Amino acid sequence: MTLYAAWEIDTYPVTFLDWDDTVLSEQTVPWGEDAVAPPDPTREGHTFLGWDTDFTNVTGPLEVRALYDSEPPTADCTVTFNSNGGTPVDSQSVPEVDSS
Q1: Contact 68, 46 (CB under 8 A)
Q2: Which of 17, 27, 34, 84 has the fewest Cβ atoms surrounding its Cβ within 10 A?
Q3: How far apart are the C-alpha atoms of 68 and 74, rounded to whole Å?
């Protein structure tokens, strides 16, 4: 009887997460291989900067998070008032507020 050794390459889960923990992609990657990034995510009022962790040469389970700029761009909004026949109030320009 002749016995032969057989090896199976380990695989690891790689999960790409958005800023709010939404799963963008889940992959099973063989040891030493690279994961493939999903399409760049979007977040209203922010700019996607990239990923927080390198996902090349995977050697264990991995979570990769999307990174965004820390401050959304601000825009001025014009607020107008209806005085319902009372004293008129001038409109005002105020910065937009991010509610997320």
Answers
A1: yes
A2: 84
A3: 15
| Residue 95, domain member (yes or no) | no
Using the predicted structure, report yes or no on whether residue 98 has a pLDDT greater than 80: no
Length of the chain: 100
Q: Identify the pLDDT of residue 79.
A: 84
Q: Does position 72 have pLDDT exceeding 80, yes or no? A: no
Residue 48 identity: F
Q: Label residues 24-54 b or e (16+ Cβ within 10 Å = b).
A: beebebeeebebebbeebeeeebeeeebeee
Is 46 domain-assigned?
yes
Residue 57's domain is classified under what CATH number?
A: 2.60.40.4270
pTM of the shown model: 0.67
Please count the structural domains in the chain: 1
